[in-house]
Specification:
Chain lengths: ~300, ~300
């Protein structure tokens, strides 16, 4: 086909292509919007229901699941906050995650930097040993981990949880950040070294600031996985309920709610636990979405 | 130029290695050793029994029942989740065909994407507890709606025929949004003119999805498949919190079996570790299988 006929065919196509969408669009858009709305409702409704139910009385919850609360009963919230200790567990989770996230980022970034930028004997072996931990199901380690933590005198302590969270986040963090440090240009580092900048100064003053986008992505990923951690505290934080993290407090609340029939208290507890996370997500959704998806794609 | 690098290598590498070695590597290695003992409870005493735990496991109906449920999840969850994820991502990214000029997203794409992603930021515990209430036979959201339409109200999680499927549905529900965003990001990297050309050729949406989008997204789909397969082999938190494996073990999963064996009433640590080893091999073989069967040539856009 020569050029002239090609453009001729293209021009013949154009009017048809111009016509089709209006016909197509009405039906197809209704169709697609219908499905999209359906899934949005399916996602949002349970959460909205949880929020509204947290203001209802138990009578309202039992008699009419779809009804609106008769009044804004914040006493449900305060009951969950104080009696079910959701407030304390929230704080505990915050303390543990602050510690574990700092430790993960510090150790992950330093290790990844060495793997990405320095040659030494056995580098490949150590790297794969490290990153291989990503493939292992945590269940396999639970029993021995229980004893490792207990023998270290860290059973039932926040320090224990912080160290264990950080240890299990390292493989992915190192994997992700090593790839990220490798993408940074070497010329800046070389120039800094020639100018007499030491290796440590180079890392903290030059390389770490340059790696900020990668650090933020992996920090978001780790924050959510630490905040939502359940199996590790369930095994390593038995006993003393004043040190529990939020996930444990919520399951305990669900159990006691089952005995007492305090539905509104459970919904209030779940809402208190959900709202801050959801608010942070809505505020930073772009970063969080890219942070989490980039985390899975590498 | 590399003068004096060893102090840095040592300071930077030794602390993470020690932490990883103590809390990750050594437990994994010990698990293999423990799996060949009859270690019971909290006593220090344990005899080596060789492969006896694995032989018992082979004839353990409860473990097989749990593995069967994980196998069903493995067959259903990735396919349904990826299917829905691709469908919604397509709608959001190119649902609106605004004439010749373009293939664009529908109106409100950003809002949809935000809402779909909600379950991803919630902890699985919250999702499990919330859905347990949604399925509640008397005051649940689901039966409330069914009753409003005069339909029968099943007991959902209380019925051995439906309990497992209810949990499975929640697993899909909580994952779809993530893959909508993931696939959406990958679709954004596909050059628009490909779609415009296809549109000019008069291809239907379905053909476009099957012949253009999916092949171009193949790497991402493969990654999604691996992650969903690994998630389907777990399911522990949802099952433990929603049904605790019941009624009558109908919704049991292998992770819960392992947990109950180790930390339940009996604390059979040796046997539980053997179940853990089986889980490891299942996970690894599923991942390898996904990588092998899904391998295709990578497509690079110029």
């Amino acid at each position: 086909m020569d050029r002239a006929t090609a453009t001729g065919a293209e021009q013949a196509e154009r009017p048809r292509a111009d016509e089709r969408p209006p016909r197509d669009r009405g039906v197809a858009n209704l169709f697609s919007h219908g499905f999209l709305l359906f899934w949005a409702a399916l996602t949002a409704l349970p959460l909205l229901w949880m929020f509204l139910s947290s203001f209802k009385s138990d009578g309202e919850i039992l008699s009419d699941p779809w009804g609106l609360p008769g009044a804004l009963r914040f006493e449900n919230w305060s009951r969950a906050w104080t009696e079910a200790h959701i407030g304390r567990y929230f704080l505990n989770s915050g303390i543990v995650v602050a510690g574990s996230l700092t430790l993960t980022m510090l150790l992950g970034a330093t290790a990844a930097y060495v793997f990405a930028r320095y040659e030494f004997r056995g580098r490949q072996v150590v790297y794969y040993l490290f990153v291989g931990g990503m493939m292992f199901p945590v269940f396999l380690a639970l029993v021995p981990l229980f004893f490792v933590v207990r023998n270290a005198g860290l059973f039932g302590s926040w320090t224990g949880l912080i160290l264990v969270y950080a240890a299990y986040s390292l493989p992915f963090t190192v994997f992700f950040l090593t790839a990220f440090f490798r993408t940074l240009p070497t010329s800046v580092a070389e120039a800094a070294l020639i100018d007499g900048c030491g290796h440590f100064r180079l890392f903290f003053r030059v390389m770490l600031p340059m790696a900020r986008p990668g650090l933020i992505s992996v920090a978001i990923f780790n924050f959510l996985s630490h905040w939502n951690q359940f199996i590790l505290p369930q095994v390593l934080m038995q006993g003393d309920d004043s040190k529990w993290v939020l996930a444990q407090g919520l399951t305990a609340l669900a159990v006691s709610q089952g005995y007492q029939g305090d539905f509104s208290g459970l919904f209030a507890g779940l809402t208190i636990a959900t709202l801050p996370v959801l608010a942070v997500y809505v505020a930073f959704q772009r970063q969080i979405q890219t942070g989490l998806t980039a985390g899975q794609l590498k | 130029m590399r003068h004096g690098k060893y102090p840095l290598i040592i300071t930077f590498l030794v602390p993470p290695l020690v932490l990883y070695g103590v809390f990750v590597l050594s437990p994994y290695l010990q698990a293999f050793q423990i799996s060949t003992t009859n270690w019971l409870g909290y006593s220090a005493h344990a005899d080596s029994v060789g492969m006896a735990n694995f032989r018992t496991l082979w004839h353990d109906g409860q473990v097989w029942n749990a593995i069967k449920n994980n196998a069903i999840m493995l067959a259903v969850v990735p396919v349904v989740t990826i299917g829905l994820g691709l469908f919604f991502a397509t709608m959001l990214n190119m649902g609106g065909r605004k004439g010749r000029a373009g293939v664009t997203g529908v109106r409100g794409t950003a809002v949809y994407r935000m809402v779909y992603f909600f379950p991803q930021v919630l902890s699985v515990v919250i999702i499990a507890l919330l859905w347990k209430e949604v399925y509640h036979p008397n005051n649940g959201l689901l039966n409330g709606a069914l009753r409003a339409f005069g339909l029968p109200a099943p007991t959902w999680l209380g019925d051995p025929r439906t309990a497992f499927w209810c949990v499975l549905a929640v697993m899909v529900w909580s994952n779809v949004g993530f893959y909508v965003v993931l696939f959406g990001a990958a679709m954004a990297a596909i050059p628009r003119d490909i779609y415009e050309a296809v549109l000019l050729d008069g291809a239907s949406r379905w053909t476009t999805l099957r012949r253009i989008t999916v092949p171009l997204l193949w790497d991402t789909v493969q990654v999604a498949w691996i992650y969903l397969a690994i998630a389907a082999l777990d399911g522990f938190i949802l099952v433990q919190q929603m049904t605790n494996g019941g009624p009558n073990f109908s919704s049991d999963v292998i992770g819960l079996r392992m947990y109950e064996t180790a930390f339940g009433s009996e604390s059979k640590f040796g046997y539980a570790s053997a179940i853990g080893v089986v889980m490891l091999f299942l996970t690894l073989s599923v991942a390898v299988l996904a990588l092998r069967t899904g391998r295709r040539d990578r497509i690079e856009y110029s």
